[in-house]
Amino acid sequence: MSGFDRDWLALREPVDGRARDADLLAAAIQSLESVSAPTILDIGCGTGSTFRALSPKLQRPARFRLFDDDQRLLDEANRLHGEAIEIVRGDLNEIEALPLADVGLVTASALFDLCSEQFIRRFVAHISQRGASLYAALNYDGRMRWSKPHPLDETVVANFNAHQLSDKGFGLSLGPRAWATLADCLGESGYTVTTAESPWAMTVSDRDLQRLFLDGMVRAVYEYGQLDESELRDWADFRRKMVDRDGSLCQVGHQDILAIR
C-alpha cells in the first residue's frame, strides 16, 4: 500500500469527523464498556485520525495501538500523541502478524475500499478467530453529487469507480463494493453487523480539499483511459471554476460498519 500525503490527511480529517455516523461511533465506544482495560488496534492509522475521533469520547482509559507501514506518518502520530499511543510498524498484508494481543476492538478509516475480496475474507477470518470486534468507518460507496451539476458527472464518476478496482496494494480492489462485501463476510462469521451512511459533505470552507480531491479524480479517470481527453478536460475546468468562484458543494458517499462479537 502506498503512503498518503500528510497534507491530504489533514485536510480530510475535519470532513471525516463530520461524516462519521454519530450513533455507530457511540455504539463502538459502548462495546468497550464491559472491558476493564480495553486495547484498540487502529490499522492503516496514518497520523492518528481515528485515535483523535475516538479517544475524547471514551468513558474509561483505553490503550491505543496504531499500526501502519508508512514511517513518515507514524513519526507524525508519535510527535502529536507521544506516550498516549503505542506505535507498531508493519505490513497489513501480513494479516497473521497483526498485533492483536489483548485487542477487543479493531478500527480502520477509509481503508477497506482499497482492498480485494480475498484480503477482506482473510482479515475477517483472522480477527474472528481472535474474538475482536471491528469499527470500520468511511468506506467509499461509489456515489458522488455536486450542487452545480454537469452533463458528464455520471460518466466521470463511473470511470473513476472503475479505476478504483485496480490494485491498491491489497490485490484487485473491490472499490465501492468493498463495504457490502465486508459487512456480508462479518455477518457470515457470526458478528452482529450494523451499517450507516457517512457521506462526505465538502463545503465552501473545504475548497482546498475539494481541489485535491478533484485533481485525484481527474488523474484516475485519465489513467483509466475510457473518456475522451477533451471531454475530461472540459469537465475538470468546469468543476475547478465552480470550486474557485462559487464554492460548489460536493457530497461523496461513504458507509460506516460496526461488527460486534
Automatic annotation (TrEMBL):
Signal peptide as annotated in the record: none
One Pfam family in the UniProt entry: Methyltransf_25
The Methyltransferase domain, residue ranges: 40-128
Name of this chain's protein: Methyltransferase domain-containing protein
Source organism of this protein record: Neorhizobium galegae bv. officinalis bv. officinalis str. HAMBI 1141
